[in-house]
Write a structure and sequence with these properties.
Length: 298
């Protein structure tokens, strides 16, 4: 049976560290400020955003939420981003995705000042990560959190290990691959066009699943002893719990994979809590840099 990697506990460690750093800034009269922007009323986004705001308050941040109506224009959103860019009380700006169809999400993300881009989606930060400039980049929260969990199991230097990342999104798959490469893994990025994905997955010492397909990665895709990181959060029907009930599963068939893996993240309680914790880490980091202080690392 695999070691279960407790994302909640590691996320709590990160939040405690953020609280300590926030207290250090308070001594200098600085309070980290995080602005979360949401457009419309997508229920899943509302849940995520509420959770981000709650954790920000717990960290001692100045936490601000802007809700724009579902029919807000691109100009409205760009104006808000521009105001937040100019506001010295704000160190982190997060525009919750997805955005309504009338808004060009790419244009909005690129309008966020790179030094306040705590999502790590701006091309400046994407480019820094791609170039291995980790000392100055903001790294997207989900892959950054996944790396912290991998380090807990495998240590910081992953030299010689084969990593397979299933999924090539800009938010998870690609930045994840770059982080693993920076940690000296041999990295393969697999996706929907990959041939014989099960055989490729079985070569992985570190297997990251980030495809958004419930329980796609089966137990016999996992190399014995591998570290399995499940980024998926999928809600599926659970008739066994009663009519109309649902449950959350990852992209990995957990019950099968845990028989084979050396260590595995559960869903829920694995990567999910880490994503929010790393948003707090990026925001306090931004506040340190804005004050001309040495960057803290997590
Ligand atoms: N929607 C789902 N995940 C994310 C994320 O990490 N950042 C933003 N901005 N929106 C998201």
């Amino acid at each position: 049976m695999a070691e279960v990697i407790d994302g909640k506990s590691v996320a709590a460690d990160v939040v405690r560290k953020v609280q300590g750093l926030t207290a250090e800034l308070a001594g200098r009269g600085i309070k980290p400020g995080l602005a979360v922007v949401i457009v419309g009323e997508d229920p899943a986004s509302q849940v995520y955003v509420a959770s981000k705001s709650r954790t920000a308050k717990k960290c001692g941040f100045h936490s601000l939420q802007h809700t724009l109506p579902a029919d807000a224009s691109q100009a409205d959103l760009l104006k808000l981003v521009s105001d937040l860019n100019a506001d010295p009380a704000i160190h982190g700006i997060l525009v919750q995705l997805p955005l309504p169809a009338q808004i060009d999400a790419g244009a909005v993300i690129q309008a966020i000042a790179p030094e306040k881009d705590v999502d790590g989606f701006n091309f400046i930060n994407v480019g820094k990560l791609g170039a291995g400039e980790l000392a100055t980049a903001f790294v997207p929260c989900t892959p950054a959190g996944s790396m912290l969990l991998i380090e807990r199991v495998r240590g910081r230097d992953l030299s010689g290990l084969n990593a397979v990342v299933v999924g090539r999104s800009n938010i998870v798959g690609k930045p994840m691959a770059n982080l693993l490469l920076a940690a000296n893994c041999t990295v393969t990025v697999a996706h929907s066009r990959t041939r014989d994905l099960p055989a490729l997955a079985r070569t992985a010492d570190i297997l990251v699943a980030a495809v958004g397909r419930p329980e796609m990665v089966r137990g016999d895709w996992v190399k014995p002893g591998a570290t399995v990181i499940d980024v998926g959060i999928n809600r599926i029907p659970a008739p066994e719990k009663g009519e109309g009930k649902t449950r959350l599963v990852g992209d990995v068939a957990y019950a099968e994979a845990e028989q084979v893996a050396g260590a595995i993240t559960p869903v829920p309680g694995g990567i999910g809590p880490m994503t929010i914790a790393m948003l707090m880490a990026n925001t306090v980091t931004s506040a340190f840099l804005a004050a001309g202080l040495e960057r803290p690392f997590f």
